[in-house]
Structures are given as C-alpha cells and as structure tokens.
C-alpha cells in the first residue's frame, strides 16, 4: 500500500507518517524543502522520539520523498496511491492543489479506483477546502468522474510537535498523546484500517472541540506569554496569570461547546485538564513563536479565537478571556513572522479599530469590539507589569 503525504515537517513525520507506516503503508513524502527530500531519500528512514521519561524512540522505515516542484513525479505517485494526506498548513493548500489535480487526472485516465485525500490541518473543513482548490484545476469531465471516485474527508489531528533542533535533521520529538479523527461519511471505497484513526459520521463536534480547546488554549498562552517576554509554552504555564486566563478562555469555549453539542460538562472538564497538563511538558520545550505563528490566520472569523468569541456572544455569553487573547494576538509584534509584520504595519497605517475589523471580520460596532478594546487596555497593564 502506498500513501502520498504532502509536508514532511513536524506533524507529517512525527505523527501522520508514523501512524501510516505502522498501518503497513509505504510512504512517499512530498515536500519543497530540497535538503529534507534528499535526506529522506538517502536514509529512507527516520526516528521519532517521545517527550517523556527515558525519551523512548521508534524508527519509521520504508519512506521516500518527492520534490513538490516535480509535478509529474507527484502525479505519478498519486496515480497509484492508496491514500493521500497533507500537513502543510492551511495557507499552503492552494499551492499543492495543482499537483493533486494532475495526479487525479492521471489516475482516472488509467483506472477508476477509489482514493481518499485527507487534509490534516488545524482548520474547520480543511479537506473540503482542498477539494475546491483541486477542482479548479480539473476539467468538467474529470470533475464528474472525481465526484464518484475521489473522497475528501475532513479530519481533526491532535499531537503537539514542536520545532525540532537536533543534529539528526530527520529526528522528530513528539508528545505521547495523539488523536486523529476522520469523517467517514465523506470517504469513498473501503475505509482503511489505521490504528490510531477514529472514524466518525459527523466531524463537527470533534474538530470544534479540538480547535476551540487545544488550539484556543495554546493561542491564549502564546500571545499572552509573548507579551510577558517568555520563550516557551511550559515557561508561560508557570505564570499564574496566564494559567487563569487560559482556564477562563477554555471555560468560555467549553460552555459554548456544551451548549452546541451537549457535551457532558464533567467529561469536557477532564478533557480540558488533560490538555492543560500537556502544555506544561518541559521536555517538549515548545517555542511560543511557533504556537503564535500566522496571527492573521489565527484571528480569522472561523478560527480558534474570534470563531468561538462570536458564537459565545450569540448565546448571550461574555467572552472576556477570548477578548484578551484577541487583543494580545493583535499586539504580537514578531517581525520574523510575515503575518505579524502585516498586522503591525496595518496598526501603524490604519489604526487599531480598522486593523481589528480587517483581520477578524468583527463588524464595526459589534459588541465584541468593545470587549476586545477593554481587554486591550487590561493587556497594557499586564505588559507594563512585565
Ligand atoms: N506541529 C503541531 O503540533 C501540529 C499538530 C496538529 C496539526 N498541525 C497542523 O499540521 C500542519 C503542518 O504543521 P507543522 O507543524 O508540521 O509545520 P511544518 O512547518 O513543520 O511542516 C510543514 C511542511 O510543509 C512543507 N511545505 C511547504 N510548502 C509546501 C508545498 N508547496 N508542497 C509540499 N510541502 C510543502 C514544508 O517544507 C514543511 O516541511 C499545519 O496545518 C498545522 O496546523 C500541527
Ligand atoms: O499549527 P497552528 O499554527 O494552527 O497552531 C499552533 C499550535 O497550536 C498547534 O500546532 C498545536 O501544537 C497542535 O494543533 C496540537 O495538536
């Protein structure tokens, strides 16, 4: 069995590749990092280390890599693949769509066999969005065939994999926890048996629970921690104010999720406690700037901060902790991050209100704007105390 996986980065090697290899797939990674591609092709294996006592390791063998620029080679691999997965980042999905479309076209010209394409990105509706981009590159007749043979099931993936700094360029250190949930109602053909993958008929509660808990909490810690001059997530979790703010935000999203999906508050509370524990793992040493990366994406209307905040308000709740994190995300001034630089330039040129509206989609005069403004004042006191 062959799996073609786009993105041989942290989650690609440290999670998706590892699970697929255990399930018996040969893995062809597709990446645009030429040095990474060469190293994978030379060694055909890599190590995964667990960030826990003794740092146990496993070896992922039977891997190769294709340079993403070589569209013909990528298309050839997709033509014979049994599964396609991605972990490249939501903003990159449009850039891989052309090669996936070329692969689907080639495949359908040779044989009609079902294929599922699973985007493993931190976003709602990732595979559906990828499908839209792929279809832009398909002719009408191939689109009609693809509708029958190619599935784009949405997915939620959870495993904290920090930036890697090892002498061994392929080694990847990961936390022990992992969760991969796939929407089986959007799949074609036989459902693959992959240990560690949970198939569900409706992904919405799972992806929202993950994005609005793990990623919301992470974002709160990262943006507040950055304001306080901290470097890593576990360091920030040693500050009581940050822990309180994170708990507060997760109470807000927890109330929302329970109201929307009927989660048992006690069970959800245990889920939250487990996640708070994961953030404190000192062996992960997860950089704040990684977790805070791409603040425009994270501030967008359906993402982890503004998404739940707007929904909380529709239900009559007051999302002040989410408001504090939104204010801190706008204040995230890290020039090496292109989106942070764009926000800071916009703040200077267009002012705070216009920047808030443009980045978040919060309409002018919406009551959430007032909450964020109030929290921005509070944030200044926080930063002043640092
Ligand atoms: N790291 C985590 O903890 C984690 C956990 C769950 C989900 N995710 C999600 O997984 C995705 C990837 O995150 P990551 O942390 O692994 O990032 P990463 O930067 O480590 O990996 C992304 C990889 O994609 C490659 N890439 C970029 N453009 C490409 C292209 N056009 N074609 C092929 N490859 C390309 C990069 O070279 C890189 O190797 C994101 O959507 C992220 O939200 C990450
Ligand atoms: O990957 P992002 O940029 O959407 O979010 C940063 C982190 O919150 C994220 O990578 C988490 O580590 C991961 O989602 C845990 O499962």
UniProtKB/TrEMBL annotation:
Q: Which UniProt keywords apply?
A: NAD, Oxidoreductase
Q: Which reaction does it catalyse?
A: D-mannitol 1-phosphate + NAD(+) = beta-D-fructose 6-phosphate + NADH + H(+)
Q: Which EC number applies?
A: 1.1.1.17
What Gene3D superfamilies would the database entry show? N-(1-d-carboxylethyl)-l-norvaline Dehydrogenase, domain 2 (1.10.1040.10), NAD(P)-binding Rossmann-like Domain (3.40.50.720)
| Entry's transmembrane regions | none
The record's annotation in InterPro entries points to:
6-PGluconate_DH-like_C_sf (IPR008927), 6PGD_dom2 (IPR013328), Mannitol_1_phos_5_DH (IPR023028), Mannitol_DH (IPR000669), Mannitol_DH_C (IPR013118), Mannitol_DH_CS (IPR023027), Mannitol_DH_N (IPR013131), NAD(P)-bd_dom_sf (IPR036291)
Tell me the ranges covered by the Mannitol dehydrogenase C-terminal domain, including all copies: 202-344
- Sites binding NAD(+) sit at 3-14
Query: What family is reported?
Result: Belongs to the mannitol dehydrogenase family.
The entry's protein name is Mannitol-1-phosphate 5-dehydrogenase
């Amino acid at each position: 069995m062959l799996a073609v996986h786009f993105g041989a980065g942290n989650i690609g090697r440290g999670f998706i590749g590892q699970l697929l290899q255990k399930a018996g797939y040969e893995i062809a990674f597709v990446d645009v990092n030429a040095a990474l591609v060469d190293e994978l092709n030379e060694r055909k294996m890599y190590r995964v280390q667990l960030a826990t006592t003794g740092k146990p390791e496993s070896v992922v063998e039977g891997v190769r890599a294709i340079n993403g620029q070589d569209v013909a080679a990528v298309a050839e691999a997709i033509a014979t693949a049994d599964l396609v997965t991605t972990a490249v980042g939501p903003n990159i999905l449009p850039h891989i769509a052309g090669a996936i479309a070329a692969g689907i076209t080639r495949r359908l010209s040779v044989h009609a066999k079902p294929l599922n394409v699973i985007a493993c990105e931190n976003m709602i509706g990732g595979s559906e969005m990828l499908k839209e981009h792929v279809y832009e590159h398909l002719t009408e007749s191939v689109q009609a065939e693809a509708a029958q043979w190619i599935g784009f099931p949405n997915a939620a993936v959870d495993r904290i994999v920090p930036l890697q700094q090892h002498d061994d360029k392929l080694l990847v250190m990961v936390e022990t926890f992992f969760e991969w949930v796939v929407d089986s109602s959007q799949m074609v053909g036989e459902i693959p048996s992959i240990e560690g993958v949970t198939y569900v008929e409706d992904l919405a509660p799972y992806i929202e629970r993950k994005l609005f808990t793990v990623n919301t909490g992470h974002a709160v810690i990262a943006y507040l921690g950055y304001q306080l001059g901290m470097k890593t997530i576990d360091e920030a979790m040693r500050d009581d104010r940050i822990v309180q703010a994170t708990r507060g935000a997760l109470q807000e999203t927890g109330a929302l999720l329970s109201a929307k999906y009927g989660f048992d508050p006690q069970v959800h509370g245990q889920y939250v406690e487990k996640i708070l524990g994961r953030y404190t793992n000192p062996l992960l040493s997860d950089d704040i700037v990684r977790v805070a990366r791409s603040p425009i994406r994270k501030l967008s209307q359906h993402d982890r901060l503004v998404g739940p905040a707007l929904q909380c308000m529709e239900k009559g709740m007051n999302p002040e902790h989410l408001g504090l994190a939104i204010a801190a995300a706008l204040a995230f001034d890290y020039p090496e991050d292109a989106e942070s630089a764009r926000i800071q330039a916009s703040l200077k040129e267009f002012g705070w209100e216009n920047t808030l509206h443009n980045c978040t989609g919060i309409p002018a005069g919406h009551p959430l704007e007032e909450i964020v403004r109030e929290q921005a004042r509070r944030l200044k006191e926080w930063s002043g105390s640092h």
